[in-house]
Design goal:
Structural class: alpha/beta
Distance between the termini: 49 Å
Helix content: 25-40%
Mean pLDDT: 86
Number of strands: 7
Radius of gyration: 18 Å
Number of helices: 3
Strand order of the largest sheet: 3-2-1-6-7
Protein backbone atom coordinates (compact mmCIF):
# COMPACT_ATOMS: atom_id res chain seq x y z
CA UNK A 1 0.00 0.00 0.00
CA UNK A 2 1.36 3.40 -1.01
CA UNK A 3 1.75 5.88 1.78
CA UNK A 4 0.04 9.26 1.55
CA UNK A 5 3.37 11.12 1.46
CA UNK A 6 4.35 9.25 -1.73
CA UNK A 7 1.11 10.29 -3.42
CA UNK A 8 1.56 13.91 -2.36
CA UNK A 9 5.15 13.89 -3.58
CA UNK A 10 4.10 12.56 -7.00
CA UNK A 11 1.35 15.21 -7.28
CA UNK A 12 3.86 17.97 -6.51
CA UNK A 13 6.20 16.69 -9.22
CA UNK A 14 3.30 16.46 -11.68
CA UNK A 15 2.18 20.06 -11.07
CA UNK A 16 5.74 21.37 -11.32
CA UNK A 17 6.11 19.70 -14.74
CA UNK A 18 2.74 20.98 -15.98
CA UNK A 19 3.51 24.53 -14.87
CA UNK A 20 6.88 24.43 -16.64
CA UNK A 21 5.27 23.20 -19.90
CA UNK A 22 2.58 25.90 -19.86
CA UNK A 23 5.27 28.60 -20.18
CA UNK A 24 7.16 26.76 -22.94
CA UNK A 25 5.58 28.83 -25.72
CA UNK A 26 6.66 32.18 -24.25
CA UNK A 27 9.83 34.04 -25.15
CA UNK A 28 11.37 36.41 -22.63
CA UNK A 29 10.00 39.73 -23.84
CA UNK A 30 8.80 42.93 -22.17
CA UNK A 31 5.12 43.35 -22.96
CA UNK A 32 3.69 46.86 -23.48
CA UNK A 33 2.00 48.25 -20.38
CA UNK A 34 -1.60 49.42 -20.46
CA UNK A 35 -3.91 50.89 -17.85
CA UNK A 36 -6.88 48.70 -18.64
CA UNK A 37 -7.21 45.42 -20.54
CA UNK A 38 -9.68 42.55 -20.64
CA UNK A 39 -8.73 39.28 -19.00
CA UNK A 40 -7.34 36.58 -21.30
CA UNK A 41 -9.45 33.47 -21.73
CA UNK A 42 -7.31 30.34 -21.90
CA UNK A 43 -7.81 28.33 -25.09
CA UNK A 44 -6.18 24.88 -25.17
CA UNK A 45 -3.81 24.44 -28.09
CA UNK A 46 -3.88 28.12 -29.04
CA UNK A 47 -1.06 29.26 -31.30
CA UNK A 48 1.18 31.81 -29.57
CA UNK A 49 3.40 33.96 -31.78
CA UNK A 50 6.23 35.88 -30.09
CA UNK A 51 7.84 38.90 -31.79
CA UNK A 52 11.06 40.00 -30.10
CA UNK A 53 12.61 43.47 -30.10
CA UNK A 54 14.57 43.06 -33.37
CA UNK A 55 11.47 41.78 -35.22
CA UNK A 56 12.32 38.06 -35.19
CA UNK A 57 9.31 35.76 -34.88
CA UNK A 58 9.34 32.75 -32.56
CA UNK A 59 6.86 29.98 -31.86
CA UNK A 60 7.78 27.70 -28.95
CA UNK A 61 11.38 29.01 -28.97
CA UNK A 62 11.83 28.24 -32.70
CA UNK A 63 12.63 31.14 -35.03
CA UNK A 64 10.29 31.38 -38.05
CA UNK A 65 10.93 33.10 -41.38
CA UNK A 66 7.96 34.69 -43.17
CA UNK A 67 7.65 31.62 -45.41
CA UNK A 68 7.77 29.19 -42.47
CA UNK A 69 5.24 31.31 -40.56
CA UNK A 70 2.94 31.30 -43.58
CA UNK A 71 3.04 27.46 -43.59
CA UNK A 72 2.43 27.32 -39.80
CA UNK A 73 -0.56 29.65 -40.13
CA UNK A 74 -1.97 27.47 -42.92
CA UNK A 75 -1.74 24.51 -40.54
CA UNK A 76 -3.50 26.58 -37.86
CA UNK A 77 -6.27 27.41 -40.31
CA UNK A 78 -6.71 23.72 -41.14
CA UNK A 79 -7.00 22.93 -37.42
CA UNK A 80 -9.22 25.79 -36.25
CA UNK A 81 -11.39 26.58 -39.27
CA UNK A 82 -15.18 26.16 -38.87
CA UNK A 83 -16.58 25.46 -42.38
CA UNK A 84 -20.15 26.30 -41.32
CA UNK A 85 -19.30 29.72 -39.90
CA UNK A 86 -16.38 30.31 -42.30
CA UNK A 87 -14.39 31.62 -39.33
CA UNK A 88 -11.54 30.37 -37.16
CA UNK A 89 -12.69 28.83 -33.88
CA UNK A 90 -9.83 30.07 -31.70
CA UNK A 91 -7.76 33.22 -31.44
CA UNK A 92 -4.07 33.48 -32.19
CA UNK A 93 -2.16 35.11 -29.33
CA UNK A 94 0.50 37.58 -30.44
CA UNK A 95 3.08 38.62 -27.83
CA UNK A 96 5.14 41.63 -28.92
CA UNK A 97 8.08 43.24 -27.17
CA UNK A 98 7.31 46.86 -26.31
CA UNK A 99 10.30 48.05 -28.38
CA UNK A 100 9.36 46.14 -31.55
CA UNK A 101 8.66 48.28 -34.61
CA UNK A 102 5.09 48.24 -35.90
CA UNK A 103 6.23 47.10 -39.37
CA UNK A 104 7.22 43.73 -37.84
CA UNK A 105 3.83 43.35 -36.15
CA UNK A 106 2.10 44.39 -39.38
CA UNK A 107 3.89 41.64 -41.30
CA UNK A 108 2.66 38.97 -38.88
CA UNK A 109 -0.88 40.39 -38.95
CA UNK A 110 -0.82 40.42 -42.76
CA UNK A 111 0.26 36.76 -42.84
CA UNK A 112 -2.60 35.90 -40.46
CA UNK A 113 -5.21 37.65 -42.59
CA UNK A 114 -3.77 36.04 -45.70
CA UNK A 115 -4.92 32.71 -44.20
CA UNK A 116 -8.26 34.26 -43.13
CA UNK A 117 -7.24 34.09 -39.46
CA UNK A 118 -8.84 37.28 -38.20
CA UNK A 119 -9.30 36.23 -34.59
CA UNK A 120 -6.17 37.73 -33.03
CA UNK A 121 -5.43 38.61 -29.40
CA UNK A 122 -2.51 40.74 -28.22
CA UNK A 123 -0.79 40.14 -24.88
CA UNK A 124 -0.12 43.18 -22.70
CA UNK A 125 1.08 43.85 -19.18
CA UNK A 126 -1.89 45.13 -17.20
CA UNK A 127 0.27 47.02 -14.73
Amino acid sequence: MTSMIDVVFLLIIFFLCVTELSDASKEKITLPQVRKASEDVFEPGRLTINIVENGDVFIQHIKFSDQALRAKLKDEKDISWDPNEKLPTRAILIRVDEKTLFKDVKTVMYLCTEQQLWKIAFAVDNG
